[in-house]
Design a protein that fits this description.
The chain is built from no helices and 22 strands. The protein is mainly β. It has a 22-stranded antiparallel β-sheet, with no helix packed on it. It is elongated and about 100 Å long.
Length: 335
């Protein structure tokens, strides 16, 4: 008891055991506490029971820390082929953080949190690890969730996100993609919400109303991820500004950090303080410190409005410059 061990059980394991052993014929029964490493997973004060036969290890009543997650459950190791050990662990987990090595050997994974039920599967040959499950009340980087369905696997030098599906309030998002040996992610994301007013407060968006659906590609390292895609917004409202329909082409730099957005828009039913402007088009950009409209044009009946402006934003004062503004009414132009 309490001795350091490095024993060949048919799989990679070393650490310290404190428990009781019972040998019956060719079957070893163990119950106690283990701290160490098993097949690349770090385990601290992991209580449980194990039944070891020449071909398998059955684990039950596990409770403890596995790579920073608090885990309770069980599992099985197939050790019938020493060249291809396979195992699975399944149970309830809390404080689940993918960046802490839940997929062994992969370090450049998003920071996550949450609690739920997970299944970890692994084979040695070929080298493959898969994590599937359902998490609740957590987050993935800047995206909080009420519920998250995750299915991700590592194969050699790549991580494959088969499907990550998030639900937060009225927001629904689905992501898939691959991160290769260069730690550059390439994937696709779609999202929709019936109420833009329920977006996560941490995103610090203004108080807006409307419905949105959109999709597009994600590419880049986690610290400089770029989104390129489109979004449709219906019944949009921002203070006195309203629009019935907006179709947007979007490029968002640094999605997980200080976002810089470039957008081209076409829309219908634009109004300002209930004054109608009709159909419109716009091209511009925005960041937390600046906004720019390179071109805007609206048409309502025989009235056309065009303008451009740029502004500097801060916590204390906003400055705007309007270098171009014109109204064309029945052939008469004011500017």
């Amino acid at each position: 008891q309490g001795e350091a061990i490095d024993q060949d059980l048919g799989f990679k394991a070393q650490g310290a055991l404190d428990g009781t052993f019972k040998l019956v014929a060719d079957t070893l029964h163990y119950e106690g506490i283990f701290t160490g490493e098993v097949e690349g997973y770090s385990m601290t004060d992991l209580r449980g029971r194990a039944v070891v036969t020449p071909t398998e290890v059955l684990l039950s009543d596990l409770a403890g820390d596995i790579n920073g997650a608090i885990f309770t459950g069980g599992g099985r190791f197939d050790i019938s082929d020493s060249e291809n050990v396979t195992f699975f662990l399944e149970g309830d987990a809390s404080n689940v953080d993918l960046s802490q090595g839940l997929i062994v050997g992969e370090e450049d994974l998003p920071v996550t949190g949450g609690a739920g039920r997970l299944r970890i599967e692994h084979t040695d040959n070929p080298m493959w690890t898969r994590v599937t499950g359902v998490l609740n009340s957590g987050f993935i980087e800047i995206m909080p969730f009420d519920t998250c369905l995750v299915d991700a696997a590592a194969t050699g030098d790549s991580v494959i996100f088969n499907r990550v599906e998030l639900f937060y309030g009225d927001l629904h998002a689905v992501l898939d993609g691959v991160s290769g040996s260069t730690q550059v992610f390439r994937g696709y994301v779609s999202l929709d919400t019936q109420d833009l007013g329920t977006l996560p407060p941490g995103w610090e968006w203004p108080d807006i109303a409307g419905r949105l659906n959109g999709q597009g590609s994600l590419e880049g390292p986690l610290d400089d991820l770029m989104f390129v895609g489109w979004a449709n917004v219906f019944d949009f409202g921002l203070g006195p500004l309203e629009a019935a329909v907006i179709e947007c082409a979007l490029v968002i730099n640094d999605v997980l950090g200080v976002q810089d957005i470039t957008a081209g828009m076409d829309g219908e039913g634009l109004s300002l303080r209930r004054v109608p402007f009709g159909d419109f088009s716009l091209f511009g950009s925005a960041s937390p410190v600046a906004t720019r409209v390179d071109s805007f044009r609206s048409v309502h009946g025989d009235t056309t409005v065009t303008l451009s402006f740029h502004g500097a934003l801060s916590d204390t004062i906003n400055r705007f410059l309007v270098p171009d503004f014109a109204v064309d009414l029945e052939g008469t132009r004011w500017s």
